[in-house]
Fold this protein.
Amino acid sequence: MRRLRRVKIVATLGPVSSDYATIRALFEAGADVFRLNMSHGTQADIGARHKIIRQVEKDLGRPIGILADLQGPKLRVGVFAKDAEDLEEGAKFRLDLSAAPGDASRVQLPHPEIFAALEPGASLLVNDGKIGLRVDDCGKDFANCTVTVGGTISNRKGVNVPDVVLPLAALSEKDRTDLEFACELGVDWLALSFVQRPEDVTEARQLARGRAAILAKIEKPAAVKAYDAILQVSDGIMVARGDLGVELPVTSVPPIQKRLVRGARAAAKPVIVATQMLESMIESPVPTRAEVSDVATAIYEGADAIMLSAESAAGKYPVEAVTTMNNVALSVEKDPTYRQVIEASRVVRRETIADGIVAAAREIAEATNIKAIACFSQSGQTVSLVARERPRVPIIALTPLMSTARRLALTWGAHCVITEPQERFKGAVISAVKAARADGFAAEEDMIVVTAGVPFNVKGTTNILRVAPCDERLISRVDPE
């Protein structure tokens, strides 16, 4: 099974997509990576979905990536005596630590760490920004506020604090338990919520101990400010536009998205654009034109992946949503303007031998009638560097490690093939040619570019390139290095 597009599709599993038939249909429709949302469902539910994904992978013979998305700390108000109250703009409202049921003048906010960080003038947003509060004065156990945006406030609604870096770890106790469970289960990626600083990512990496790659969700203003440092310690990035659009002006989200995508591309790390991409398809079999344009924009920007959330987890048309994303991607990537935009936004990196090798591979492939670039890689780094170049020809990622192939399911353009371990470059060339021909990338009369690192099995040694004919009789005469 070969995708005819380069951008990858991430589909979230949930109540409507938990059985074998639906998960297989989602993969066949175009999903490359499945997201397991640790905020919903029990560990038993997550484990069952993981098992089904791996069965689909086995039955179809294609590596499938699995991303476990950790919930992160949840900040919520307490409960009200009447379950809900209407707050009018300009009214006074108090938040405190008292567990007494709330009314129209106050409610509990059971998070002393928030009060410790607040200052007069700070903003608080309740229920995804539907209610706005401005802090007038505050102490270690209270905040007296003025209502800046009125509305109905009800039990246990979420609270956002956009103006300050909260003294909270990105990992709650639930997250630590879920992280260990997911790693033991064998997921390929861990998505880390509530990231504010690079230390949040470092902590998760230490707990994961190499069992899964760490993807930082950029969903808070503090993370946007510290993006370069967070990117440096992360294996990948998710542009989580939902929370960004709550804590920042919605008009600032598009330029932030572009900056985050370009930064991740330059660092050769996969980047997902997520949230509300085809949200109308939760209820409708067809998307709006604005949603299609939104998905297309992320593809034109060169994002590695685009993601479905409730559309595939709880919507009425999960398979149709994946099919729509797939079709949008096919349409965009056929557009001549797509190549112009991708190449205009390419970041030139020529700092290492590996940078030079992959750049040369792309230039040779695009200047001649080369059909594909084949990368032999243990860690996946060579493939990531080639993908950073966003070449016009397909990328064949050859690796002896299923774990590497699964992680690369998130990488732009990577068609992953499990191959035998190699000790000599000649063997890698032969494996690449066989894969190119078997999966329909090249015919006997064609040629491909092969890159690898010699000696093999050493990370970060990409140092060799060869143009190889796909005629096996000619391959048999290639001299060993």
About this structure: The chain has a mean pLDDT of 94. The longest strand covers residues 131-139.
